[in-house]
Automatic annotation (TrEMBL):
The keyword Protein biosynthesis does not apply. Residues 14-234 form the Radical SAM core domain. This is Radical SAM superfamily protein. It comes from Candidatus Bilamarchaeum dharawalense. Keywords: 4Fe-4S, Iron, Iron-sulfur, Metal-binding, S-adenosyl-L-methionine. GO terms for molecular function: 4 iron, 4 sulfur cluster binding; catalytic activity; metal ion binding. PROSITE patterns: RADICAL_SAM (PS51918). InterPro entries: Aldolase_TIM, rSAM, rSAM_sf. Its cofactor is [4Fe-4S] cluster. The keyword Iron-sulfur applies.
Amino acid sequence: MSANMVYKFATPYDPKATVLYVNIVPRYFCTNSCRFCSRKDAIQGRPNIYEKKAGTNLWLPKAPMFEDVVRELEVRRTVETTEIAFVGLGEPLLQFELVRNIITRIGTDGFHGKVRIDTNGLVKCWRKNDPAQELQKAGLDEIRISVNAVGSDEYTSISRPKQRDAFEKLCEFVRDCIKNGIDTYLSFVVGFDDGEVKTRTAEEYQKFARILGVQEKNVIIRQYVPPLEQNLRS
């Protein structure tokens, strides 16, 4: 049984650990290199806030096989499981077909809880049809898209994407998710300032979310957490 592929942990919002987290991201890979992200600490083998919360190392040398993920879900899912969330230190939708097929299987296996994805929202940069529609048809209930900016130049500066049209594709995908009836959340980091880039206020992000069609109740504001080693030195 692989503890870093399907796992759970208690949080203040989920003290009974009823959410199962699915990690299918190989080698912490992502299309972005966000200035505030703890992924670079994980890549370098340093302590990081996400793996500390998860209670396990999330390194996968390669993307798992469909059958292996399904087997892990069958073993770890209980009657108390209320949600299955595709997450990870990296971008899960780089493994789009794997995620879509697992979501479909979750439904056929009779799971009646929520199915969620946390993503950087750039899937339209490499998936040329309608990924939001595919995910909705597979059975996706909720998506949380990390935005962290209100314009293209700002996004490029803070998220450092590999794609030139990343922000435009992200905004398209947000609207596609809403159009397809997926419960769509946008997340923004506040409180980050590295001397070159400073994040905006929560109010500014909420205003931009409304422009995209997302209500304030579906805006997640995340307070920046410095690297663990920096915390220890503070």
